[in-house]
Design brief:
Length: 209
């Protein structure tokens, strides 16, 4: 552990768990994890390693967007407060919190709308393309058009947060992550949270291995 890390994770967790969905023990173990990874802030590379190694994320575009969703002050690093609050939504968020989070991931230019072009940019490399298709991108565009029509309640050809929220609330399982997986699966999430809840406090150490 580096010299910059807090001496008392328990005292720090007492304060930091309150605005999150984590218990004090879960928060304490997340703090141990954070300060084992870094002494001040997480850079993009280390954060992507966490997403890949613990939550099985592999899509470069989506991992970058998740990083940006966590990085509230836009300084290109994840500080401990952003780590705690971001993971609170990522692992235990309410549907409303997850809707706002996923929308921010898909809104690539942060203009308050999800456009066809943004969805295409996210999906074009992740969808399976059939080798017999003359123009496989056309199949992706057709799927996007169908989804936009289904969710575009104000019929302006793009999705506002209101459009997205209304559609997802009606069909959360189908539409929350319609444009790319940016949350852990239930199995992965439950395994990670269970680990946070069962680590022996007497060890005073979060094991990453």
């Amino acid at each position: 552990m580096t010299s910059s890390a807090p001496k008392s994770f328990a005292k720090m967790a007492e304060v930091m768990h309150k605005p999150t969905h984590f218990s004090k023990l879960e928060a304490e173990n997340l703090l141990r994890m954070f300060y084992k990874l870094t002494d001040v802030k997480l850079d993009r590379t280390k954060f992507r390693d966490v997403l890949h190694n613990y939550f099985n994320m592999t899509d470069d575009i989506l991992m970058d967007r998740v990083f940006r969703a966590f990085d509230n002050d836009n300084d290109s690093y994840i500080n401990v407060d952003e780590w705690m609050k971001g993971l609170s939504v990522f692992l235990k968020g309410t549907l409303d919190e997850k809707i706002k989070y996923c929308f921010s991931v898909y809104d690539l230019n942060s203009d308050g709308h999800i456009s066809r072009e943004e969805i295409f940019h996210i999906l074009k490399n992740s969808l399976t393309k059939q080798p017999t298709e003359e123009d496989p991108d056309e199949g992706v565009k057709d799927l996007i058009d169908q989804t936009i029509r289904r969710m575009d309640y104000d019929h302006d050809g793009r999705l506002s947060l209101h459009d997205y929220k209304t559609a997802v609330e009606a069909e959360p399982v189908l539409l929350l992550q319609a444009f790319g997986i940016c949350l852990p699966s239930d199995e992965v999430r439950e395994k990670f949270v269970k680990r946070l809840q069962t680590i022996d406090e007497a060890e005073r150490k979060f094991r990453l291995a």
